């Protein structure tokens, strides 16, 4: 309805509308592509996603919840790595101001390991430097994920969620070892 | 065709005249109080910034005697920085800005007693919350995740402060409804429309944090209940916490859409498109908060993925804005004789701070937005989550897109409100450009450190282990430290100009010498609904769209929260600071 201004090179309504629609189309297609690629990467397992609700099968843990004052009834009573009867590996880790237990977690190289993390007090972060392992340790809740460490060596395990005056010193390690046969 | 004889389609809007001088004076004064309180919060808040930048430059200044006397810890300083900048500065500025604009745009009278009451209540909340912050009794950072426990005084003050913003929502929506009743069949003017839509969005968004603080944290901190479920609290926090970023940038968008073209000498591209953008934000900015919780257990991946998809959709109105604003700038530049595919850019008034601030803010936001898409992707998020990348990201969004735009607004809004003059265009311009350059360098340094694995919110320069000394981060550390110094200069320049302006004498009638910079429009919306395009007619019923927004957020959060409440695990509080 508004008559376009014909002043020299200036933009007018009709040209703008055309560009606008093209731009809108490009934006929409880009977003859809992005979503599809993220989903593809999700399903192909390029990152260790957290097990969803009900994904934990741990004694003493119900719906992923446990009482942080009562680790005794759960495998968190003895933090560290264990091998199950079927040969699979599981690790139990407690975050507590201002360190992780165990302070050095030893894991086998090239084998899938399921790591369960919880907190004994406030929120902490479970971030293994140089990897995409990044989970929140929440008191009363268990974060579980499965991952495979590909190279032997020692990785820094850094608390990346503010947990008090000692937060910056809450650094331990994960030691990836070649398995003794 | 339009039925209104006075409607000339491309002309700039003029504010309806207000002949009651006492009322206009009071309206301007309350706005000025909001804006100045906001800027004082920004002053105190940013004072900590350069120290934090030095920390991320590997230099620990927190053991010096002066700082030791002032701050109990790095984390107390960081709490002040986060709360004052991200919550207080923004909320006060926006409350003043987005109360004044619709009142002027619609020419409506508002109840000034209530307006002053709201301002005073909000300030009282702020002062109450400030006491525990300053005495190290609420060193919880601005996210205050339980079970880290703060003094109940902090939660109560914060609840009063945030709650009073809902009274501003009431004022603006009420004013708009009265205008609708008095003007049946008319299309809401663009600026008022954008303000009303933004306030409605904020109302839907604020429900999460208000529920968290009022029903969970206050009773818990007072000892009325034994424990708190940290995951429920965190989920309610991010219900508000993501949408809040749109509450920060939409008021900047208003100035980009409506006023920047005027500063540049160009025209608004399309009113209907601007309306669509704001409606998309109203509907779509709230039900996305789970994308902050990819690393949290016991929330199903399906819901996280739904929120991720919705997050990606919010990119579309942002891209529409980038298109519109760029087109108005090009229009301006060509009118001034600009030529060529990119050559027109040189014809823009880069030396004018009212112009440079919002444009540089917009450029910063394009980069920030691109990083935001990375953060939102559940597959990338674990690489950057809670690393220094994150502060790198939000200092070029809220820390620049919003803050720099607000600085630019203050250069004409304060003269407009007070009749005082900007004392120095050159110093104001220098403040704007150093802020932009400083934040770009800062963002580079912090994003880079984050990719190497340096965590955020940590006194990394004071760590007992050698981990950070062994990382290959010498160059980004240097960039961060230098940026802190550039930003220090910038804020000193800005606050010098600001205070000189505020403390100078009134020289003229701001209404005349510094009018609200309404712009001409290339494709206006017709003033009457009957003659308006479909886009204008479908976006006009904001009350109904508000209902849809509320419904959407309940659909996207209801099942998640219901499951969390059904399995709640209350844990005791801790004070580890
Ligand atoms: C002089 C300018 C500024 C500098 C040098 C600066 C520097 C920093 C640094 C280095 C951090 C990271 C601290 C950490 O993670 O330990 C930080 C955090 C933060 N900054 Fe700024 N900043 C400035 C201005 C601003 C502005 C204008 C805003 C917002 C309007 C802002 C909002 C925040 C927020 C919300 C945090 C996060 C606090 C938290 O994680 O709890 N900053 N700032
Ligand atoms: Cu920790
Ligand atoms: Cu920590």
Describe the fold and architecture:
Chain A has 181 residues and is α+β, with helices and mostly antiparallel strands. Chain A has 1 helix and 10 strands; from the N terminus they run αββββββββββ. In chain A, strands 1, 2, 3, 5 and 8 form a 5-stranded mixed β-sheet that branches. Chain B has a single domain (21-566), classed as Cytochrome c oxidase-like, subunit I domain (Cytochrome C Oxidase, Chain A, Up-down Bundle). In chain B, α8 runs parallel beside α10 and α11 runs parallel beside α14. Residues 1-6 of chain B have low confidence and may be disordered. At the A-B interface, α1 and β7 of A face α8, α10 and α12 of B.
Topology diagram in text:
The complex is a heterodimer of chains A (181) and B (577).
Chain A: H1 13-43, E1 80-83, E2 89-96, E3 99-101, E4 104-108, E5 112-119, E6 124-128, E7 133-137, E8 143-148, E9 153-158, E10 171-177
Parallel strand pairs in A: 2-5, 4-10
Antiparallel strand pairs in A: 1-2, 2-3, 5-8, 6-7, 6-9, 9-10
Chain B: H1 21-47, H2 49-56, H3 65-70, H4 74-106, H5 112-134, H6 152-182, H7 190-221, H8 230-264, E1 267-270, H9 271-284, H10 301-335, H11 353-376, H12 381-384, H13 389-418, H14 425-452, H15 467-470, H16 474-503, H17 510-513, E2 520-523, H18 534-539, H19 542-566
Parallel strand pairs in B: 1-2
Helix pairs in contact in B: 1-4, 1-5, 1-13, 2-16, 4-5, 4-6, 4-7, 4-13, 5-6, 6-7, 7-8, 7-9, 7-19, 8-10, 8-11, 8-13, 8-19, 9-10, 9-19, 10-11, 11-13, 11-14, 13-14, 13-16, 14-16
The site of one copper (II) ion has 7 residues of chain A, from loops.
Transmembrane segments (chain B): 33-54, 74-102, 114-134, 154-177, 189-218, 238-260, 272-294, 306-329, 355-374, 394-415, 427-448, 478-499, 543-566
GO molecular function (chain B): cytochrome-c oxidase activity; heme binding
GO biological process, one term (chain B): aerobic respiration
